[in-house]
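Inverse folding, one chain.
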């Protein structure tokens, strides 16, 4: 405990003086001001992004989609079906996929030291024993991906659209100590891409928003998640700064 005894509030581990409270109010005010300035920059960035989304054309037909690519229409939201043209799979699991991953796991023995305590004649003694345990550990992986996909009935290289997330398919045991886990991306999806239509194609790695129509995708993209995240982190930082200020010995205020 610090040595102050006058004009202070005792909180056990440290005391807070009235002068420290006044200074901490100033710290909060300054941090809030800085936060508002940073938030303004984030808001400007989000407004620029929203303007890009609002100006993008909205397409739901194959004819308009292909016309936009031919005429360099620029940014666009396009709604349609994403399908595999060619497919991939591994023997023994069945089914066909746009993408499939095979993860090898090995059942491995490990050891660890376990502490034990005993009490004899009022004295506590600690000794250690070696314990063994087994886990399935990662031992490598391989993957396959199709060459072409179609979106809104137009064929593209698979690299043109970010695929939906992979899902667990099956686990196949090779032996008591080796097994393979399979994860894959199915053959058919419906959703919206945000992309740039130019040079008779779309941009590489165009994001795909599964099971979302165009209006839902725009609303999702315009939601200001960054601002909420910033203010949560910033308020925590303010709390840490104030607590740290109270915790240190601020003799210079006396």
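Residues assigned per position:
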């Amino acid at each position: 405990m610090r040595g102050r005894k006058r004009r202070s509030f005792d909180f056990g581990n440290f005391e807070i003086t009235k002068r420290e409270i006044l200074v901490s109010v100033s710290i909060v005010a300054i941090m809030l001001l800085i936060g508002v300035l940073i938030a303004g920059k984030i808001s400007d960035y989000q407004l620029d992004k929203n303007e890009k989304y609002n100006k993008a054309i909205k397409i739901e037909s194959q004819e308009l989609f292909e016309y936009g690519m031919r005429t360099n229409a620029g940014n666009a939201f396009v709604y349609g079906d994403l399908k595999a043209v060619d497919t991939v799979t591994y023997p023994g699991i069945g089914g066909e996929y746009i993408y499939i991953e095979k993860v090898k796991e090995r059942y491995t023995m490990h050891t660890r030291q376990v502490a034990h305590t005993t009490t004899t004649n009022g004295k506590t003694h600690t000794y250690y024993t070696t314990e063994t345990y087994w886990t399935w550990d990662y031992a490598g992986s391989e993957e396959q991906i199709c060459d072409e996909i179609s979106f809104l009935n137009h064929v593209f290289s698979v690299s043109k659209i970010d695929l939906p997330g992979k899902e667990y398919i099956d686990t196949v045991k090779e032996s008591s100590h080796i097994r393979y886990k399979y994860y894959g991306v199915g053959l058919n999806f419906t959703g919206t891409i945000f992309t740039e239509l130019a040079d008779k194609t779309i941009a590489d790695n165009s994001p795909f928003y599964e099971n979302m129509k165009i209006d839902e995708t725009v609303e999702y993209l315009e939601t200001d998640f960054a601002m909420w995240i910033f203010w949560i982190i910033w308020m925590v930082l303010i709390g840490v700064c104030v607590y740290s200020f109270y915790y240190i010995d601020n003799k210079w205020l006396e």
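The two ends are 17 Å apart (CA to CA). The longest helix spans residues 18-55.
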